[in-house]
Write a structure and sequence with these properties.
The complex is a heterodimer. Chain A is an alpha/beta fold. Chain A has helices spanning 17-28, 43-46, 49-54, 66-78, 89-93, 96-105, 133-138, 151-163, 209-222, 240-250, 265-276, 296-302, 307-319, and strands spanning 35-39, 59-61, 82-88, 111-115, 144-146, 168-171, 193-196, 201-205, 227-231, 234-236, 253-260, 281-286.
Chain lengths: 325, 299
Amino acid sequence: MSDNNAPALIGTSGDSLREAFGKALTNLADEFPKLVVLDADVAGGTGVHHFRKAHPDKFIQFGIAEQNMVAAAGGLAAVGMLPVVTGFAVFLSRAFEQTRLSIAYCKRNAKIVASHPGLDVGPDGGSAQALEDIAAFRAIPGMTVISPADPKEMELATRAMLEFEGPVYMRTGRSAAKRLFGDDHTFEIGKGQILRNGRDVTLVACGVEVARALEAAELLETDGIDARVVNMATIKPIDAKLLKQCAAETGCMVTAEDHNIYGGLGSAVAEAVTQGHPCPIEFVGLNDTFGSSGEPDELAAHYQITAPFIAEAARRAIARKGSLQ
Amino acid sequence: MMTAAKLSTQHSAPTEHDLEAQIAEAARFVRRHTIASIYRATSGHPGGALSCADLLACLFGAELNIWPTAVNDRFRDRFVLSKGHACPALYAIGAYHGFCDKADALNLRRLGSPFQGHPHVRDLPWVETSTGSLGQGFSVALGMAMGMKLQKINARAYALLGDGELQEGQVWEAAMCAAHHKLDNLCAIIDYNKLQSDATNDVIMRLEPLADKWRAFGWMVFEIDGHNIPEILATLHRAASTHERPSVLIAHTVKGKGVPYMEGSPAWHGSVKLTREQSVDALVALGADQHEIKELLDV
């Protein structure tokens, strides 16, 4: 398939996380001589069309066959290659068991990068919106799970993922993402970052919800509530130390994610906080429901994961302070 | 591919007959060892381990370029037991060729033993990848073949599949992919014993016309008797010289081969507990004498 003369992809933005990933990967190819990129006929959607164009000899087409692609990545890693499996999050989930056995159980240095997660997918509808992937891949022993927040962080996370030895699952994103970080931004796997200090409540978010959490903090400020915002780009291993510190210092938390509230970031935060410094936690995410068609912002409002809902959850969390024995 | 000299302990050049006799002896060892380890473990899958014993003996004895002293050599051939439940046979052939200790390999399916109920590469590096979920090992071998080509490593990847395994859709994803990418360094071997867990293939999910399916997917197909050692050796040799196409050996076998009361019965597919009497009967049928039987079952 030629990249020239192709129809413009609807919804494509130079600022989407998938485009940032595809460009970063392309630029890093020469630094990682064993790198190969695996695709299941969605390169135009995952951002790796940039890579295919620049490095066709390191791009492997698997066709629409994710199970074979993911297990083959285990074989490529076994003989010394550095495979990066790319695809849409829902379809990579069908290779969950291949990820489990042929990559994670074998401790292969293979990476899985999933675009089109969550409501951020938009009009393709409920069937295409992965709301379970963080929970599923987080449950695999030894798996690292990352969900960067903006294009700059995606670029840094792509490098960090390639430098890291071991299996990684990383979420990108389909829609235009707000730029949050400048050139001085840093990224380290396993480290959360306080983006805004505050003492009344901590808002912990990942992916596209980080921008919404920052917006929620501004809404809360007008009410005189001083909210802290933490970007938790690594969901596993979670930065338990930072979370316990935030729990101790602010006394309550809200988690926000474009994912089912069961098993994702919120669960990971709760696991860490309840083992260290228990405090009230409110969960913003999909409330055990599938998504539907619509524009991403419309969907986010409909399913109540936008800034006003995060702010409302913060007020609830603050009201519950002191309720724990 | 290696020469016959690998197996020989003689100084003079071995004849083809010597090689075949050595492989037949290795296969007998695999079968006895399989029975003994499953008896000791009180569980395990004997039927499909016995049916592939001759195939494994040929691969390890004359085909695979692998060495116990260099299990990480990047130029080695790769062998994947995609039908991971047949691992008692894999452990036995590995032990026979010095990849692990023979007595250790009898310690199957126990806490702390690297000889798990399905092969695990982090316990035993020479098994190359962890298997036990049907279909996956084949794709992993495909990835290995692909990666070796990309690195211009002139070695081959082999995957031994069960027939029931061919019911997994992933197998046909991999079959399509290997032909598309012209992976002539990939060789699949099908242990076609016609039986699976609950009944015959024909009852559970028909596989025929099997050779036609593989041909239609673009593979070079060889149909052989999977217990005829000269035929297996000759066909592996021919398969290795296939250009721009992957090759598949459809090896017709008998489930439980070598143990009369198991032959052709699906009852011995699954994880079973062998009684002492059953184990002794099997070992006698496999030509073991009283001393060997005592050593295998009791020591």
